[in-house]
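Troubleshooting: if your tokenizer reports a length mismatch, compare your output against this known-good record of 199 residues.
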Amino acid sequence: MTDNELIKLILQGDRNKFAIIVEKYKQLVFRTCMGFVHDKDDADDLTQEVFIQAYQSLSKFKKESAFSTWLYRIAVNASLNKIRKESGRSFLQRIESMFSGEIKNDPPFSSSDLDNPENIFIRQEHSQWIQKALDSLPENQRTAIILSKYDDLPQKEIAEIMDINEGAVEALLQRAKKNLREKLSGDGQRKSKKQRRKN
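Known-good structure output:
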């Protein structure tokens, strides 16, 4: 049964069919949300929120694009809205949450890590460093790079999700990669320090 056939049945009153859609797309939505918020619990909450929004807005789905594209848009918007709401969260709170065990998305530790606690610290620090660099990108660059790298989507689909042309997606990805390279190499930090000294 296709997505459009399922949606038709749901809109006709067979609400139980929505569980099939949730099962089919929950990992896709979770992965997208995780790319933005970097926290398993937050991504779980957002995933539920996305499916609630999708269910409530199902009658607005025009079938002009794939259902997955429409769902990606909801996931991206919900993630960005959450980030905007929490943008006031202080750096100190982020550090505290790291050490209180709130961050649960680190990769499983290997046996060598368990033998060497320093490896655990380095991996956690590296993960946080990448996340911080990603979070500092402008919203449109961050969205493009997450859909490309976390979700492995082709540029054509990213263009549909973001409602821009493929050339614009290519430009966003190039700028995002350049910015990430600068930030992760330390160039960005040096530039920001110079900028602060000028001001």
